[in-house]
Amino acid sequence: MLKLNNIEAVYSDVVLALTGVSMQVTDGNVVVLLGNNGSGKSTTLKSISGVLDTEDGELTEGSIELDGKRIDKMKPETIARLGVCHVVQGRPVFPQLTTEENLLMGAYMRKDNGVKADMAQVYEYFPKLVPLRKQKSGYLSGGEQQMLVIGRAFLTRPRIMLLDEPSLGLAPMMVAEMFTILKKINREQKTAFLIAEQNAAAALSIADYGYLLQNGKVALEGTAPVLKEHQGVKKSYLGVTAGQSYYQMKSSELRGQNQS
Ligand SMILES: Nc1ncnc2c1ncn2[C@@H]1O[C@H](COP(=O)(O)OP(=O)(O)OP(=O)(O)O)[C@@H](O)[C@H]1O
Ligand SMILES: [Mg+2]
Predict the structure, then answer these.
(1) Domain CATH number, residue 87
(2) C-alpha 227: how far from its chain's center?
(3) Would you say residue 139 lies in a domain?
(4) Which is deepest, 3, 45, 104, 230, by most CB within 10 Å?
(5) Residue 184 to residue 217: CA distance in whole angstroms
(6) Domain for residue 117, yes or no?
(7) What is the pTM of this model?
(8) CA–CA separation, 75 vs 243, rounded Å?
(9) pLDDT tens digit sequence for 38-95
(10) What residue owns the CA closest to ligand 1's atom 5?
């Protein structure tokens, strides 16, 4: 279990990005972190993986525990070794390396002999990557790159993956496909996920639990079904008006029939 207790995060000694944030990710659960631009989603994930100081940020209050053991003073490498893998915002592939070489980077710390089997497993989860094995990853589409970085994270064999806006800039079909695969990984591998997302509809469709951040604070939390039905979430984050779902609304917009 990953637990954040009342954390406060500050950048450059002055920018208060998080205050009094408490949340938890139970083993094997999918938890979604919703919130607008600047609400503190990325900062929350960076606090967990221990990379805040690379951006002159600092945890100034509270604690973060993994199975009751404090990890908030640990180095990012140590936290990663404990099975917490952070996929940062913006699909950071090594553009000059091929798909396969990128994937192997995920396994570079591993000493066990399961890498080959896990590689096959990644291609099974993400069949779109198979014909792209030898392609330079810089030429892959946004969706393919997102699958690649998640596949690379999978190869670290994490117990919990922190994903930062995986759906950003992807077409609705690709978003749906990606979340279906994430759910499959969660179910089959028991990997827990903490997913920062602005696409609330897609993320809540696979989540067990969710938190809504506003101005660096948890404004709302609840199970995914409860959040999906919450009027405020519906109005502000699900784009639902008069019973339309997110996808219905998008497709009607595409057809130029949006009446809202
Ligand atoms: N490196 C930084 N230096 C100073 N301030 C920062 C830094 N990174 C983020 N912030 C500030 O901290 C707050 C939270 O930012 P954060 O990136 O966590 O939000 P977010 O919810 O991930 O937003 P987005 O949806 O745009 O990615 C914002 O006010 C932002 O301006
Ligand atoms: Mg962010």
Answers:
(1) 3.40.50.300
(2) 18
(3) no
(4) 45
(5) 31
(6) no
(7) 0.91
(8) 47
(9) 999 999 999 999 999 999 999 999 999 999 999 999 999 999 999 999 999 888 899 9
(10) 11
| Boundaries of domain holding 56 | 2-95+158-229
Counted domains in the chain:
1
pLDDT tens track for 19-31: 999 999 999 999 9
User: Ligand 1: which of 8, 12, 15 to mutate, judged by most atoms within 8 Å of the beta carbon?
Assistant: 15
Residue 27 counted as domain residue: yes
Distance from Cα 216 to the centre of ligand 1, integer Å: 9
Q: Which one-letter amino acid corresponds to residue 104?
A: L
How many Cα atoms within 13 Å fall on the side-chain side of residue 128? 15
| Residues 109, 155: Cα–Cα separation, whole Å | 10
- How far apart CA 61 and CA 4 sit, in angstroms, is 11
Mutate to test the pocket of ligand 1, among 39, 164, 197 (most ligand atoms within 8 A of CB): 39
Q: How far apart are the first and last CA of the chain?
A: 42
Give the number of the atom of ligand 1 that is nearest the alpha carbon of residue 216: 14
In a domain, 129, yes or no: no
